[in-house]
Amino acid sequence: MAEEEGEKEVTLLGTWSSPFVLRVKWALRIKGVEYTYVEEDLRNKSPQLLQYNPVHKKVPVLVHRGRAIAESSVILHYIDEAWPHHPLLPHHPYEKAMARFWCKFEDDKLSPPLWRVLTTQAEEQREAHASAIESLGLLENELEGKKFFGGQTIGLVDVWFGALAYIIPIYEEITGLKLVEQRKLPRLCRWMEEFLSSPAVEGTLPPKDMLLPRYAAMREAFLAKAKRPEQQ
Amino acid sequence: MVAAAAEVKLLGMWASPSVRRVEWGLQMKGIEYEYVEEDLANKSAALLRHNPVHKQVPVLLHGDRAVTDSLLILEYIDETWLGMPLLPRDPYRRASARFWAKFAEENCREATKKAFFERGEERSEAIEQLREQLQRLDEELEGKKFFGGVEIGFADLAVGWMAFWLGVSEEVAGFTVVDAKKLPRFAEWMDDFLRVPVIRDNLPPREKTVEFFRYYRDQQLAAAAAAAK
Questions:
Q1: ipTM of the complex
Q2: Confidence band (pLDDT; 50, 70, 90) for B148?
Q3: Mean pLDDT of B129-140
Q4: Which of A140, B60, B200, B209 lies at a CB distance of 3.0 to 4.6 Å from B67, suitable for a disulfide?
Q5: Which pLDDT score is estimated for A228?
Q6: Element (H, E) at B8
Q7: pLDDT at res. B4
Q8: Cβ(B172)–Cβ(B221) under 8 Å?
Q9: Which positions fall inside the GST C-terminal domain (chain B) (predicted)?
Q10: How far, in Å, CA of B134 to CA of B151, rounded?
Q11: Helical H runs in A143-201?
Q12: Exposed, middle or buried, B94 (CB in 10 Å: 0-12/13-18/19+)?
């Protein structure tokens, strides 16, 4: 009896707008794992959050059978290993390594320039834009002959990149810069549609009318900060 | 299909902690490999071909496969050669090892880099951050000899650079964060870690490493000063 209750004892601490939290939600959905979701206010962190993630005090945090796991990449691997059905990672060690490589690629070579596209202007923004386009081009190549990065079904890399599918159009709208053009990155375009309409993802996205002003405000804040003279 | 017995080559650089980390893993598992020293000022065709995205060492070549990024390489090694596991079997313990590896590799490295290269307030903030991070590592070692438990494991290999290269950074850049009184468990871990034969026998010469990082730091600072003008 206690064992069965323990089995369902999964809690996810998150915030509505965080793409990192969404990754975990998608993974739990794919695995069919039921969980309790707790919305955190990061300006007023709960004792639970501070207890479960004392090192970083961030979301997402997954709590399973009373034990906490933090950092979305660590959580995704944990989910894949604790619930081995519907695997997120390929079976073969080399393919696993390649999947992890693409996740790191996103962190190192795609997220940073995309962030700079949102938060800078003029020359800095132009450079960031070019850099982001170059990285997106590599993703386009990787999708050759595949419906998803994971193959026929959504895998770890799709979950990892997934937020881009809804964030990129928002960045495009705010900055007026095109990032994923149908004629230049057709596979990526199609992937975005497939991903967003898949059962695991449908209905999970934060509302656009809440996200757009949020990201627009970030842009304004960063541009304003850049205009102020350096404090020596 | 590449058999585990296919040829293994490691492209590396003698002073790099990321490269040594892979060597520690390979040697713990008793994997034979050929080491190829790269001149990072004059990168080989092989390096550029096998790591076109980052053009960095280490790169592990196994048959016709190339794996980059030291922690990814260690996971690949662990999943391909099953003897002497680096990661535990239990998913939660694996998650814990990966968490601390990420902490050491991203947060601690970032802070160390800033303490090493920056000046003024950015530097003192980084040093403070590093002290807090070391406190966390010290706490994690409670009741354990190594991060991996009784023996070294994945997390120890990931944190391992701090047992040697952190001291080098402190010496070259003139700061102190490892206070044995404030971090008794971490200080003991450093000693125990460096005494493990596979580690002890696979470290760069200290003086030469200090010299190298001193030169590297001077170069970077000069370049930053020139750019600021």
A1: 0.94
A2: very high
A3: 98
A4: B60
A5: 78
A6: strand B8-12
A7: 60
A8: no
A9: 90-212
A10: 20
A11: 156-161, 164-175, 186-197
A12: buried
Token look-up 């961030």 returns A58
Does the distance separating the beta carbons of B53 and A105 come in below 8 Å? yes
Q: Which amino acid is at A48?
A: Q
Q: Measuring CA to CA, how many Å separate B221 from each of A225, B41, B116, B119, B224?
A: 26, 18, 10, 10, 5
Separation CA B3–CA B180 (nearest Å): 46
Q: Which residues of B touch A (CB under 8 A)?
A: 2, 53-54, 62, 65, 67-69, 72-73, 75-76, 79-80, 91-92, 94-95, 98-99, 102-103, 136
Q: pTM (2 decimals)?
A: 0.94
Per-residue pLDDT, A227: 84
Residue B21's nearest CA partner among B217, B192, B162 is B162
Looking at chain A, the number of H-run helices and the number of E-run strands are 11, 4
Residues 6+ apart with CB under 8 A from A222: A118, A119, A120
Ramachandran class of B159: left when φ > 0, alpha when ψ lies in -120 to 50, beta otherwise: alpha
CA dihedral in degrees (B57, B127, B221, B103; nearest 10)?
20
Q: Contact, A55 vs A48, CB < 8 A?
A: no
> CA distances (Å), A134 to each of A110, B22, B64, B76, B164, in order?
9, 30, 26, 27, 37
CA nearest to B69 within chain A: A101
If we measure between CA atoms, which residue out of B200, B106, B110 comes closest to residue B152? B200
